[in-house]
Amino acid sequence: MQIASKPRVRLASRQELDEIGGLVSDAFASLRPVLAPHIFEPYVNDARDIAGRWAKASVAVLEAEGQLVGTVTYYADAAFDRMGWPPGLAGLRTLAVAPSAQGRGYGRVLCEWCVLQARLQGSSGLALHTASFMTSACKLYESLGFERRPAHDLFASDVIGFDPALGDQQIIAYLLPLKQSRAATIDNV
User: Fold this and answer.
1) What is the pTM (predicted TM-score) of this model?
2) What span, in angstroms and rounded, lies between the C-alpha atoms of 145 and 125?
3) Are 157 and 119 in contact (CB under 8 A)?
4) Dihedral (C-alpha) 109, 110, 113, 114: value to the nearest 10 degrees?
5) What are the beta bridge partners of residue 127?
6) Per-residue pLDDT for the chain (189 aa), expressed as one digit of tens each?
7) 178-185 contacts at long range (C-beta below 8 A, 24 or more positions apart)
8) What interhelical angle do 135-143 and 106-121 show, nearest 10?
9) What are the distances in angstroms from CA 174 to CA 52, 73, 154, 156?
10) What is d(CA 111, CA 92) in angstroms, rounded to the nearest whole number?
């Protein structure tokens, strides 16, 4: 009888950058029919550029049965993500689960790891951006207590730089408040 190993989240190593980038590309491939090519290609290239954010963030991976099946990038300070969040908030980015491993709760495990990191560092909240058509992701974030923050919504052209006249995609903002003592500050975010 073979005993299945419990999935675990750990920090990635630099030697895994190519594998993580491939996992992100595979996970985001389902977005190709939904996004225009002038948005899809730069978006996926930016998402898989783990090396480009390595010094400013923590990249975690989820292992199951000895395989990398998921990844997430965690910013101790969301302002480093260049998505318009004020200092004092932690940030979550590029949550990706391999297509063959989706539907098993691995995305939730990775999100919960980020929430734990933010709580341990004493952050007042955990911020992220996603797209409204990513309905499963939106449901996951909302089930974890994230709240919409429309004042921080962006457009893809703001982030990946292209002419919005070609057509654009709204990127919606979510925040998970973590500290009650800073509720007034969080409410203004």
Assistant:
1) 0.90
2) 11
3) no
4) -140
5) 91, 175
6) 455 568 999 999 999 999 999 999 999 999 999 999 999 999 999 999 999 999 999 999 999 988 999 999 999 999 988 888 998 899 999 999 999 999 999 999 999 999 999 999 999 999 999 998 999 999 999 999 999 999 999 999 988 888 898 999 999 999 999 975 444 345 555
7) 178/115, 178/118, 178/119, 178/123, 178/124, 178/125, 178/126, 179/122, 179/123, 179/124, 179/125, 182/124, 185/88, 185/124
8) 50
9) 23, 16, 12, 16
10) 8
For residue 40, what are its two tokens?
């899809």
Tokens of 2: 């073979």
Report H helices in the chain.
17-28, 37-47, 50-53, 106-121, 135-143, 156-160, 183-187
Distance CA 123, CA 117 (A): 9
How big is the CA angle at 114 (ends 88 and 58), to the nearest 5 degrees?
80
DSSP letter assigned to residue 31: G
Q: Which residue's structure tokens are 């950058």?
A: 17
The CA–CA distances, whole Å, from 98 to 36, 64, 104, 131, 167 equal: 22, 11, 11, 19, 29
